[in-house]
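User: My collaborator sent over this chain with a note saying "see what the structure looks like." That's all I know about it. Can you take a look?
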Amino acid sequence: MRARRLLAAVGAVVLVTSACGSGDGSGGSATTTGADGPAGQGPATLPVRVDALPEDFSASFFAYFPQAVTARPGDTVEFVSDFTGEPHTVALGRIIDEALTAFDATPAGTPASEETRALLARAPSFFPPDATNADADPLPAAAQPCFLATGSPPQESACVDQPRNPAPFDGTQSFYSSGFLPDEASFKLNLADDIAPGTYRFMCLVDRTEMTGTLTVVAPGSEIPSPAEVREQGDTEIAQATERVRARAEKAKAITAPEAAVAGAPSAEDEAPVAGARRVASTLNVFPEELAVPAGGTVSWALHGAHMIAFNAPEDARPLYAFDADGVVRANKKGALPSGSPPRQPGAEVVDGGRFDGTGFLNSGLLVGEGDLSYRLTFAKPGTYTYKCLFHTDMEGRIKVG
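Assistant: Without extra context I'll predict from the sequence alone. Here is the result:
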């Protein structure tokens, strides 16, 4: 399901600065986390990481770290993007609360009811639901910041007349969304002084119910975990989620047989081992470290998830998600579409990239498979060739030919 959603791509990274963009208080501004003093001494800034970057292999985690945070009126929850290539957002409001409450009440293994699906559909989707092209633009209603006191956001157009500095979140707004968070961007959720104690939910508009979190607001003056303790809890959840997939990553990196190469590797959606935390869905973004073939030999990659095989990629082919100069998220067609390689034919299980002599930009384009799709390439000349996935950061491998 996630692979189907990952069929869009975009250009160079800048923070949104249009009327729909960041402000200096509540929108998506790039700042550092502060207020590390003891709990109870003035307003606190509580850090939450969006996704995570393991140090020794590439993976994406569809989670907020920590997944649950406790704050008081007047505090700030700062969501900071650990960008892996996968796009993420943070959305709150009554629409999100109602939808996730209904979803959480759905028994495990049971399809969501029509009523629950309708509630979830009120929150706009990041990608067009019927998108079939890898270069389809994300939908602006989800990709751009949107702050609504009442009513529902549009499904396909951007929210209009958005303030540069939205009012603090008081729990009564119908929709309160960061929009796309590029690398190292932050979304500062300032809590109003009069927000009512209670539980508020947040959700990624890309990964939907697979990526959610809980904000618990307690009464003014209550003791809460300090910013340092919140950060430590997030780090603990990241470390334990990372260990869940480490063995799979090491196995994928150690592959040497060209016919068994992988682009990504299957990763089970394990239950998060931290008490009280929701499961952490993840994907591995791993190529074999080095494959060896003779001149004229062929490498075949089995694709797991959304990835691409790219050689000699220009700098402007990455990243695949970002705001343009007008503050709009668009597709980076240079990175998303094939170059020097034929496109996948409908229904084909194998994409043959032909012969490659090491010159020019060769890109498979964004391909989505669950182990049932492979991309193969024949290497015409001896040499050492480095390749990468233009979707995921830090995902690369090497081919030794001859």
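A starting point for your reply to your collaborator: The helical segments are 2-5, 94-104, 114-121, 140-143, 227-253, 333-336.
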